[in-house]
Specification:
14 helices, TIM Barrel, alpha/beta, 3-stranded antiparallel β-sheet, globular, single chain
Amino acid sequence: MSKFTSTLLLCWGIFCLACGKTTPDTPAPTPKETPDYVIRGLWLPNVDTQALNSREGLKQVVNDCVTYGFNRIYVCVWNQGYTHYPSQLMKDTFGVAINPKYEGRDPLKELIEEAHAKKIKVIAWYEYGFASDYSGSTTHILDKKPTWAGRSQDGKVLTKSGFRWLNAFDPAVQKFMIDLILEAVKNYDIDGIQGDDRLPALPVEGGYDDMTKALFKKETGQDAPSNTLDSQWLNWRTGKLNGFMEQLYTQVKAAKKSCIVSMAPSIFPWGRDNYLQDWPTWVKNGWVEEIIPQVYRYDIASYQNELNKVVNTQVPKERLSILSPGVLLKAGSYVATPEFLKQMTDANRKAGLPGEVFFHYEGLKTRKDFFGGLYQ
């Protein structure tokens, strides 16, 4: 061995001792540091993707987030009446602890381990919220708890756009939903929880169950009107969901102060008039720490129009730091073009918003050229 080689190896050995390495290798990538309030997120559903089906798939999600500069993953943990982690509450209440496709695994735990190793936050996204199922494809929730069903004026189970709904005004339903969320907050090292256009929400056609009508009569002296958009009826029901939002925020923060309360509602006032979501009130009263309205549009003029409403009239200037628009990247066969994505993100920056959340992860795969330059 030459003197030069010996000297080189000695230097490498000293370096290894200092760094804790034993062999030269390529360090794993880590995301670029960004201020914690700057949200650069992706929604990770359990449909239209195979990512949650294996730990390897989750590793790939995390690696992609590192590569393209994302710092938050909003992972679906509740839909079609199933959790995507083993839930004792679900087992005790409905006899099923986890979505059967994930039996024997814990996708939420796996993702947290993979993401936290790369300094990426994991937000547990309760996608279905107060919706029990879609098109009756999984009926176990209402089969076990028929009195929990929301009702429309015809007395049938409240159904809208294919989704069947629980009664969001029922104290038992509200307690179940909060307990389900608190279970994850207490048992997992999640960084936050998120509701969306179904939590807290209820189709405006709902509220016609006997219990809710009786409560409205007691509190207002009026019968529930047949006009679902009657101002008193609309405001009363919206107020009840606002009360749930306050309760959810208070209990989550009491259980884990560091847990972020994030909401991704429909745009306003459409969301109020169709799903009783009055999210500007949540922001005004401090019941939410991230607000990510779904500014899902298919042309820049429409996107800019909705963004202007959010920034200029719906979120107070002093709270703009909690705002990050929800951007539609992929839905079914639709994938936004790179040009449109740039127009939307440019509009966000012009509005003083440094980040956004994209729906959803799979769209990243076909738009890597765009995302390669977005957060670099």
